[in-house]
């Protein structure tokens, strides 16, 4: 991939002297920064902007390992062929008119991809803005050359599946001076090079500390996840097309398919990726993480809030409720130190309202002392400075003030409002010193929280799937799968679960009333449940094939008769123990088009209908993956028991979830597993009903 | 109140020629804009800034009806006395050192308030920044005179209980040019004039279209609510101190008591007030509502999204999910019109991705045609324009483009990114034309939603409490209250509820086993419940005083014996029908220090422990209030029934909630009512257990 970012020479196909055209802008951009050889290619010109122009790609002299193409889409395939012939390693195709333009374009794109794979030439795009490298001053893009005036080098690299957004956003962020960037990659239709490869490159890139992605589709879900899991750099993802409506919009854009919102959300959480919700917010998360990528894990980040406004202090505290950070409780020593600048009537506490102290001692002294106190306070993990630019004698030298904090490894964040001109100066200055500054209080608190959440991330998700011993009873599973139809009946499904060491209800198929009675009285004990298993019938309850609360031999006999009649002599009759539970869960397996086998666990019964609380994990799950999965249930405290009921044995539940994933991975013919309900009885989960669907 | 805003003459006490002092800044501000007479008062000077200075307030000549005070707190009481003597109508006290500074200051403030009430002089503040009127150019504040350079008149008035925030925020908003303001009132400790009076003034002020408030406490909750309910202008409230930590911070600030977060949240919703969460967000909500204060009610605002970036279109759609607005479905006519500028391969849909059309036809034509189509489309209620400033040939004349939309009564909102300098120009221009422009996509969608939510508000909350006939059996209630101790037992409590026509379980106190058996078999029918009522014992279940599932005469007898024994011969035994329900609710009444009698309804049973889903309404509730209250439950769809269970009769439930409030209002000695559970059985709510607590 390095020839895309650091080519020795570039052929620009579609170079033109017409200043209104993109081919001209690309050339201008190359001339401003690229240090290697530039070779315009266009049969109509001898030279452009003083550089010799070549008739064809074959004429371009060495060294040249990258081609940038900006010509009508129809002409692209032929040019790619010449590029491959000429020994070009990589081609960035910025033209549009491919898969996004309908069936014909889709075919062209497919053919090109096949060609590239065969010939070994790598293709970037099409339908993209190329790439910008603010550190090395490489702009391989038709983005406006005026961008150069404001290009701020930084630590954040971006991978963006939307041309206009990458270019437009870059101009916005650069000219507003809120952040710098390292590399910005617009990947367009990603017909060959995709987010995975670029992400891998960024993870080893010394100029990249944090990677932000805007994606509408994830081409290789599992590979993407694996790369993210291994990543030591923070990764922030904004996924477009999460809502039903958004997904509809995504279908029409960059020819992408938006995946199942819940699966992607959970897969990303499992891989330790931070999810963003909006464009600027993604940038804010990225620059915050770039400023403090290595926060030590801590249950809650304890924040000292230094404010000139009691009101802003209050709202800051409000925003921290239920998040990964909280207002710090100041030590006695800190309070004593603050007392020396606080008026007598004002007891120091956090948020530290410095306005009276500022009035009496000036901002420098008041804030300075407060920061020193917070730095020395072992109960403070981070410092949140509220600053005001342009008035009220509140001018602060943020850099000077935060030096001690940085030495102590305590991150400093700043909320800044004030006169636009002066605020802008403070903001630019602070950015260059690595202090994240925000205009909105909520965003500042959100980003502080993200930095601490990322610190904790390394604990909860950096785990490899265990080296589990395979304890499945494979013979039983194979026989059962063979015996079953597409939809295996409850008993067969549970036989397979049992073969995977998943607890299931005690049960047996009974041939007649007598053996049913015997089972009920001797083996299972009352109350029992009796069910009719009719091939192909998956909705047993609705079909009247479930008899609950059977308490006597008479009732067993009646149930047997009723079920036999209901099944019209077909099918089998199952008798099983009746489980009285404290909580109903649902567990199962689905196959996601992007991520493959995913294990699901959620609230069942009535709760399922109201709360819609289910989470997905990409299999195989490690034991800690499975525990983390349960922890992501919105109402996970239910698992700890309530009203005197015993909590779920989370280790046992974790083993069940791991086993479900392992089963589906070991038997690819399994398309779906549904354990519903998985009842928690005295703390132990037990599969009460189940259904396995296999491929036909 | 008008003398505060439009005084005939102003005495400035604490005027000084020292340019570093606030008393100087106030004078400068007055000189720049105030059209009436200005009278500096300071015994040490003959004149200040060329204006004659008076020794005492008594020396000030007519006309003078307002004094502004900026002198040390200790000297204030004496000056107020002189002001009252001199016949001054209003005094704005900007000095600090009152209730916020401890006990001594609290006493001074109390005395001053009493003095003012007696003498009829009105006091504004203390510990505040006074007021700024950008339309009439009155700045009665020590806020930096440089503010004047950027003061932008607008339609939004603010009432702010935080001095630094009002001043600082004003400078921030004005210099960033994102919005204009009408009046900004910093009310400080509000020892006399409070938010209610100023809010009432603003509601009749012709220069105010929307009122935004930042409050840490609401002094007179009910009065505030009543004013808001009657208001025809949108009101936006940012309440500081909602979290437990925030409330702690609020205690130390402006000497205010933060109320119960849930009660205030619901009381404001009941009164149709929009709640803000952050400072800039509050401003954004205010300016959006000021632009479009009269949107017609509609189930969902249907938005046409005109974008140059498919990605931004997708994210916009994502943000609309589950909110008050949704992406519009374009009519066939609209699609046909768009086809004329769309490339052939691209079927028009919403979000309307205009980039290819812009490339082919230019931004003006592409956007112009799309806006015309959206304006004419009966399925479109609002237009959301994504604009870019400074590049990509995307320059748009927003005003020109939106004229037709405005004529058609369709609000236009704009998301704008781009080069900082050019974006700023577009933003200022758009603001002056009344088009709300946002930098963050999410904020734009949120504000659009707020405008439509406000349109719907007028339906759901503009209702006066009904003229209900009092159908309470007052004799029964009085007797029962008299008979009970502080905590009335279940039976007495339910006797009172029954007297208010609230359905309760059939039940009776039984003296012996025989009558218990008779009741069980003849009146109640099995199964029954038996409970021991022991004076002062409120936790019956824990004390072993509840016997459920009694199915036979024998069990009745056993239960009777057990209960008698458990109560050691004291107490009474209650027998009641056992209700099998589909859903457990809790209902009740609490007395809030700010809002008085509040009715509560929430999920009960297990749900209560997990979901924390309860809402409050300030009594008396109208029938529609009560219906709206239920509608604010997060999981209100539970009320509609699930798993075949019948939904709650919402009208019956509403009557119960109204009756609970009426009961507590009619009998002020009732401090608390707790109906737990209120079981829904076949759609009908019935009080199964209840407890009324009265004052000792």
Folded structure, characterized:
Chains A, B: InterPro entries: Acyl-CoA_Synth/Transferase (IPR051538), ATP_grasp_subdomain_1 (IPR013815), CoA-bd (IPR003781), NAD(P)-bd_dom_sf (IPR036291), Succ_CoA_lig_flav_dom (IPR032875), Succinyl-CoA_synth-like (IPR016102). The structure is a homodimer of 696-residue chains. With 696 residues, the first copy, chain A, is α/β, with parallel strands linked by helices. Chain A folds into five domains: 1-127, NAD(P)-binding Rossmann-like Domain (Rossmann fold, 3-Layer(aba) Sandwich), CATH 3.40.50.720; 128-291, Rossmann fold (3-Layer(aba) Sandwich); 297-461, Rossmann fold (3-Layer(aba) Sandwich), CATH 3.40.50.261; 506-578, Dna Ligase, domain 1; 583-694, 2-Layer Sandwich (D-amino Acid Aminotransferase, Chain A, domain 1). Chain A is built from 24 helices and 30 strands. In chain A, the strands form six sheets. In chain A, strands 9-8-11-10-12-13-14 form a seven-stranded mixed beta sheet, with helices on both faces. In chain A, strands 15, 16, 17, 18, 19 and 20 form a six-stranded parallel beta sheet that branches. In chain A, strands 25, 26, 27, 28, 29 and 30 form a six-stranded antiparallel beta sheet that branches. In chain A, helix 3 packs parallel to helix 4 and helix 18 (474-483) packs antiparallel against helix 19. The model of chain A is unreliable at 251-259 (pLDDT under 50).
